[in-house]
Input
Amino acid sequence: MRRNTLKILLAIGDYLVMFVSLVAVLYVRYRGYPGLRIDQHIGPFAIVFAVWVLVFYILELYDINAPFNHRNFLYAMLTNVAVAGLGFYLLADFVDISPRRNLALVAAMFVVLFYLWRFVFNRLVDTVGWYRNVAVIGSDEHSLALVSRIEMERRQGFRVAVIVSEEDHPVPQWVIDRGIAVVPTVAELKELVRDRHIHTVIISDEWYYSIYNELYDLIPHRLYFFQLTNFWERFEESIPIYATREIWFLENLNRGPHKGYHLVKRAMDILTVLLFLPVFLPLGLLTAIAVRVSSPGPVIFSQTRVGRNETPFTLYKFRSMRTDAEKHGAQWATENDPRVTPVGRFIRATRLDEIPQVMNVLRGEMSFIGPRPERPEFVSTLSKTIPHYHLRHLVKPGLTGWAQVKYRYGASGEDAATKLTYDLYYVKNVSLVLDIKIVLKTIMTVVGRRGR
Output
């Protein structure tokens, strides 16, 4: 989809601007003869710039739809300069970059050129557009919700040109105000395919299995056809649970990832625990001391959670709430929850409270990546009110997951339903590539202290 293309173009552009900054600094510093110094700089800085782009990705500077975050960019540059400076210092015997102030000059030059480059890029994207016109067959609430998302996120590369509206689902006025054509039948849509330059046709589940014959004549137009659920999945990176029927899950969740994936992931979980044990142990010890000193009660908090195939297990965390937090029974955590201690608020935001869960990972009850395990009391209730909720238990739960990096902390049944849309996306698309993506986004969550 065009979103990924724009991200790649942005990353390539940033990387080129970094090299332009390097050449400009060398040209100015060495009297117009950058070749005298370029050879010794090009190799080390190529690696440095690759790390810089990775940091930009972690700090969400390639989020096409979000407004540019100046704070994240400046934080990224401070991080980049610090990391690169430390690298040059530690590798001084192998990397001859002198004088060292070249790094600071390159960073300063890049900041100026970066803002200029991003300004030009944004103006070009917003002016040229490169939109692909979409026709939506269906005007039920789920179809209109997708129409609204497409119109709000034009940088995804689509705009709605035509809606086929059922008589019992009239379109709201905002659709007319957006200049979207509304027709009552597929036959009339066919007449608009050329005039409106339709590229993609999205079909709601209410129509999907009943209009094959009517759409058959559109094959010569070389259009792309999507069931609403499939297009929503690509566009929003989630699964619309209320708009998706059982037949879709039968067609798309019938086997799951290859057995080799589970073996590799299990090996990676164990290896990660062993590699980071020198980090987990001192951090865990300091966290335990802080919890013990700050409030009375046990340091470790244990609780029953539901795991893969709905198997219960005991989850361990550092206690972040008062000991009487659930004297009135199980309840959702809320924003600024008064039951959370001051230390608890910090360790939740930084995810330090989850360090004891490495034991759950070693025991095979959890993975580092997967849907967050929920409590049996909530699972019982949510399974009755949210369609397809049980499907999130097809994979092993994790310390962090797609829902955690895409959505805020769940504090209600409505939040649980929204998070399920992302959990099911993960269940359907589970892969090592998606796991790596979640790890990188989790780093941003921890750095920004957005956990809870």
